[in-house]
Amino acid sequence: MFKLLLILSILSSTPELQDANVATLVYDYQTGDTIDAYRANCVIPPASTIKLLTTATIADHLGSDYQITTPITYSGYIEDNTLHGNLYIEGKGDPTLGSQYVGDSLLLQHWAEQIYNAGIHNINGSIVADVSYFDAEATNPAWIWQDIGNYYAPGIQSLSYKDNTMKITLESGAVGSLAKVLRTDPTIPEMQFDSYTRCENISYDGAYVYGMPYSNYRYIAGKIPANRSTFTIKGDLPNPALLLVTDLANTLITNGISVNGDITFITEQDTTKTTRTLLFQHKSAPLSEIIRHTNHKSDNLYAEMLYRILGTRQEGSCTINQSTNFIRTYWKERGVDLSSARIMDGCGLAPQDAISPKMYIQLLQYMYDSPNKDAFIASLPCSGKSGTLKSFLKNTSLHGRVYAKSGTIGGTKNYAGYIFLPDGRVWIFAVMINSANCSSRTMQNAIEKYLLDVYTRNT
Question: pTM of whole model > 0.90?
Answer without folding.
Answer: yes
